[in-house]
Write a structure and sequence with these properties.
Blueprint: H1 2-19, H2 26-41, E1 45-52, E2 55-63, E3 66-75, H3 86-92, E4 98-101, E5 115-125, E6 128-139, H4 152-177, H5 180-209, H6 215-229, E7 234-241, E8 246-253, E9 259-261, E10 266-268, H7 273-280, E11 286-295, E12 298-312, E13 315-323, H8 333-395, H9 406-422, E14 426-434, H10 437-444, H11 446-464, E15 470-476, E16 479-486, H12 489-506, E17 521-526, H13 537-552, E18 558-560
Parallel strand pairs: 17-18
Antiparallel strand pairs: 1-2, 1-6, 2-3, 4-5, 5-6, 7-8, 7-13, 8-9, 8-10, 11-12, 12-13, 14-16, 14-17, 15-16
Length: 561
């Protein structure tokens, strides 16, 4: 009975192992495991990482039913594009087994209303850690559905045959190494030929870049020639402003291989670990193997994806991205170097174009500033001229009556006489004095004296406004001079008499006047004559003589010559 029981237990232990697909190669074993994970756990993404020679490497991955085995093993970072501490994740979630986040490790964009459950499963043989299996399952909510016991078969199978499969794979690689010299020579020849072809194409592309006059046209040339000359399936160039947290497209390739304008694509910078890794690693091509490929934010396939960030000193200006969506081309070392060199050439040209645009903008700003300053200079000159004219005019204006002063009269008299001669007119010069003005000024003060002079200037204007041409000037305190072009001498005499009488009858008190006790005027006039105008300098003096004569004759009167 005991022997029968032991046999039954042994059969139960062996039955799960027997149920596993026993495959000859590590590749077949990985594919079988991944397919079972899909069938039993609805796994969307799976990956196997193995410890080889003290280094954790990527052996195989399956992304949405697309399986890839890497016979020469890839660096573990090429699964997600950035380094992940799988041992830390496995130990951190040892008790709860799985955890939920918004994105798969190898995805670029979050899908609407979809969360992702992740499990990192250590694989062991006795006490030896062989590696890890990553399992990712889509979930519409944050509820965790993966259970540790559901993967006991995987742990047993890995303990049973994974190490053997790995050793067999390594042995096969050693056997292949016997022919390595021949293979290396063929590979080197092929690599050298590819490198020469790529270098020639890159030189032609650089020459074409010289024809680009804008960043927009440059990016289109780079995409078109990258597709045609470098055999890159799809490529896109994105620019960014990290300070504003914005990225935008330029030109790219659609899922059918057509070069399309993507300048309408603009959004906030994606906040992912892959982008963080890309922006903290200068001059390195970031590679992701067997990952979702996108057009905008829409997934269009699965394949390899590379990204090369472009820098201007310490400033990130954008990046160049490429993938193998259309022809599933292999990403070998020559192609990696070609993409890096192309990105460096595009980056250099963008920086030069931006510098040129900035210089042109500065030049335009300087030209605008110069034009504005020239305009301001013209305005300042006009203001200065006006100021000078006003200054000169202010020197020829009496500040009390605001009438032209003696200086103005002296400067303008020759022209006035000349104009009168051309018009065959007759000119009269009238000199007016306010009797006893200085005594009035002392007796009644400056303000009253100024008010008196202003009222007399108004009286003079009122009496002379009937003449088409007349000039009234304040020649000294309490003295005025009038130049009138007249036709009727009788009317002129009446005007001067009316001026004297009007002032008298205003009865403005002046105790300084011993004769009249009021403000009166003494007027002297010189009427025009043919011989008189031959000597214009004597006109004003003759009028003043007549005024002095009126003063001697008792004031408040007119003397006319």
């Amino acid at each position: 009975m005991k022997q029968t029981s032991k046999r039954m237990e042994s059969a139960e232990l062996e039955s799960p192992i027997a149920a596993l697909i026993i495959d000859d190669t590590l590749e077949a074993w990985c594919e079988g495991v991944f397919n079972r994970l899909i069938d039993e756990n609805n796994a969307k993404n799976s990956a196997l990482f193995l410890w080889v020679n003290g280094e954790l490497v990527l052996a195989a991955s399956q992304t949405q039913h697309v399986f890839n085995f890497y016979s020469h093993f890839k660096p573990s970072e090429e699964y997600s594009g950035y380094a992940i501490d799988w041992a830390f994740l496995a130990s951190r979630h040892l008790d709860d087994f799985s955890f939920v986040s918004e994105l798969p490790f190898n995805a670029g964009w979050q899908q609407d209303n979809v969360m992702w459950e992740h499990a990192v499963i250590p694989l062991r043989k006795s006490d030896s850690l062989l590696g890890y299996v990553l399992v990712e399952v889509a979930t519409p909510d944050k509820k965790k559905r993966l259970r540790s016991e559901s993967f006991d078969w995987l742990r047993r199978d890995a303990a049973f045959q994974l190490k053997c499969k790995l050793l067999a794979h390594q042995l096969a690689q050693v056997r292949l190494s016997k022919h390595q010299n021949e293979l290396d020579l063929a590979l080197n020849n092929r690599t050298l030929s590819s490198q020469l072809t790529y270098l020639k194409s890159l030189h032609e592309i650089s020459l074409r870049f010289t024809k680009a006059t804008s960043i927009h046209s440059l990016c289109r040339i780079a995409i078109e020639l990258g597709r045609d000359r470098l055999q890159i399936d799809r490529m896109g160039i994105f620019l960014c402003d990290l300070e504003k947290d914005k990225m935008w497209g330029t030109w790219g390739t659609d899922p059918h291989g057509n070069v399309v304008d993507r300048s309408d694509f603009c959004q906030e910078m994606p906040n992912t670990l892959f982008m963080e890794e890309a922006f903290t690693t200068k001059n390195e091509l970031i590679v992701k193997e067997n990952v979702p490929l996108y057009f905008g934010r829409e997934q269009v396939g699965i394949g390899w994806n590379v990204m090369m960030v472009m820098w201007n000193g310490d400033e990130c200006i954008g990046w160049l991205a490429a993938d193998n969506l259309i022809y599933r081309s292999v990403l070998d070392e020559p192609k990696k170097e070609a993409i890096k060199l192309l990105a460096a050439s595009v980056c250099q040209k963008i920086n030069k174009l931006r510098e040129t645009e900035l210089n042109n903008q500065r030049l335009g700003d300087l030209e605008k500033m110069n034009t504005h300053q020239e305009h301001e200079l013209v305005l300042l000159r006009r203001k200065l001229e006006m100021g000078n004219q006003l200054g000169a005019w202010s020197k020829m204006i009496d500040p009390v009556t605001e009438l032209p002063n003696e200086k103005y009269l002296a400067l303008s008299l020759p022209q006035i006489v000349s104009d009168s001669r051309r018009q065959n007119g007759v000119l009269a010069v009238i000199s007016i004095e306010v009797d006893f003005f200085r005594g009035y000024q002392k007796l009644y003060g400056e303000n009253e004296a100024s008010n008196l002079l202003r009222s007399i200037s108004i009286l003079i204007e009122e009496n002379t406004e009937c003449y088409s041409f007349h000039v009234c000037a304040a020649t000294a305190p309490g003295e005025f001079m009038i130049l009138v072009q007249y036709e009727n001498e009788v009317h002129l005499r009446e005007m001067t008499e009316a001026l004297v009488n009007s002032m008298y009858h205003r009865n403005i008190r002046n105790r300084a006047s011993a004769i009249y006790q009021r403000v009166t005027l003494s007027v002297g006039a010189v009427l025009g004559g043919g011989t008189l105008f031959n000597r214009t300098s004597r006109l004003l003096k003759n009028a003043e003589k007549q005024r002095l004569m009126a003063r001697k004759l008792g004031r408040n009167r007119i003397c006319i010559d």
